[in-house]
Predict the structure.
Amino acid sequence: MVFAMSSEPGKSSVVVEVPEHPAYLSVVRQAVASIARQMGFDDVEILQLQMAADEACSNVMEHGRPKSGKIKLKFQALPDKLVMQVRDRCGRFSPLERGLPDLDSYFRSPTGRGLGLVILRNFVDEIRHSYRPNSGNTLSLTKYLSGEEKKERR
Amino acid sequence: MKLSIEKLQANDKSVQIVKVDGYLDAHTFPGLERVLQKLMNEGERHIILDFATLDYISSAGLGLLLGVQRLTSQQMGGLKIINMQEPVHRVFDVLGFSRVIEVCASRDAAIEAFRRTT
């Protein structure tokens, strides 16, 4: 695992690199919780951010081919938002290209697939995917602080 | 994740209470799945999950709960969850799981819910 941090006024970033194995999802979630708590997100928002980061990493672990071995997460704590970038070096793969299942069809489905995407779409405010052949996939997840939290952070 | 299992007899029903400590994610849910599958294979169909010390659940864990709810309901039993922590409960509600899996305030409330519904 690799951790790196940098900081300047109003902006700090943390990079965490973990092996592409589910045993390390807890490390990712601890990093998310630590950064998000420091920014002023409340307990429910922290859990939602943890779930979104977990799903993004789990997707890479489950569907990313060929295996790249590692996942790099970059967290940017900005005055009004947290941006989490999840990077892998697999072939082009975007969870956003799959149709969004509605919850009713999820509950009716015998396979129970698709909840991860519902979590990604609902628990962050913005989600973007990009791919470059030399550097792989980047899934960017952004969650904004609410007004009260921003006030406290000033 | 740590699991502990307690069996009790409530009225004419055998009820299994499984206490889940830690977190349920893609790495840990197979451990709970094995335990619940074994209970169901042994004919147990009234299961209570005590989440007092569960502080995280992912889609993998939620999917497992849904599967267990379906299987136990088909056997005229069911799955109840007790002592859910507030943030986990809020997410559970937002994702609609409260509509299909009953969350009860206590062990007694869960047993009473089984008495009413199964």
Q: What stands out?
A: Chain A touches chain B through 25 residues (CB under 8 Å). Chain A has a mean pLDDT of 90.
